[in-house]
């Protein structure tokens, strides 16, 4: 496993310019970048240039505080949170304890043992019937999958191809703010 990096500036450029104060990325834009970087196993390296005082500008600080709030509000209360789920026939089943609306699933491999999963799918179920299927490749350190909100009572994570015996260290499900999910 070799970690990827996502290098992004909170501003249009890498240095502070007062003329860019109104062009600072919004909390929602930062959250989207988080989903697309950390959610695909990369490190999210966010450049925040100091202003002429040597401080973070108020616009940048406000965006960061808003971003932190979005992370906390959306990922603090999982609908399901299962550590080291058992894989039976390369499938892990997560029961949601009744029908719940979800639009985000987070998967993690025990990366200290290497990245193993090459391809997988998730089947969202309601009363044993598949209501939505999501196909994807690689999990790695962390994979965040977002999709249109779906009512489900369980879901299966099915590993289709792996470099070695597939293992999952964590599987979580959430209902995040639907305005933050790309459709």
Description:
The chain starts with a strand and ends in a 9-residue tail after the last strand. The protein has helices at about 25-35, 60-75; strands at about 5-10, 40-45, 80-85, 90-110, 115-125, 130-135, 145-160, 170-175. The chain has about 180 residues and is of the alpha+beta class. The strands form two sheets. It has a six-stranded antiparallel beta sheet with strand order 3-8-4-7-5-6, with no helix packed on it. Strands 1-2 form a two-stranded parallel sheet.
Q: Point out poorly predicted stretches.
A: none
**Which structural category fits the helices and strands?**
alpha+beta
* Cα end-to-end separation: 30 Å
String of helices and strands: EHEHEEEEEE
- State the major sheet: 6 strands, antiparallel
| Secondary structure: helix percent | 10-25%
**Rg over C-alpha atoms, rounded to the nearest angstrom:** 19 Å
Give a brief description:
The chain has helices spanning 27-37, 58-75, and strands at 4-9, 42-47, 80-83, 91-108, 117-126, 129-137, 143-162, 170-174. With 183 residues, the protein is α+β, with helices and mostly antiparallel strands. The strands form two sheets. The protein has a six-stranded antiparallel beta sheet with strand order 3-8-4-7-5-6, with no helix packed on it. A two-stranded parallel sheet has the order 1-2.
Features of the shown structure:
183 residues, alpha+beta, 6-stranded antiparallel beta sheet, two-stranded parallel sheet, 8 strands
Write the SSE topology:
Blueprint: E1 4-9, H1 27-37, E2 42-47, H2 58-75, E3 80-83, E4 91-108, E5 117-126, E6 129-137, E7 143-162, E8 170-174
Parallel strand pairs: 1-2
Antiparallel strand pairs: 3-8, 4-7, 4-8, 5-6, 5-7
Helix pairs in contact: 1-2
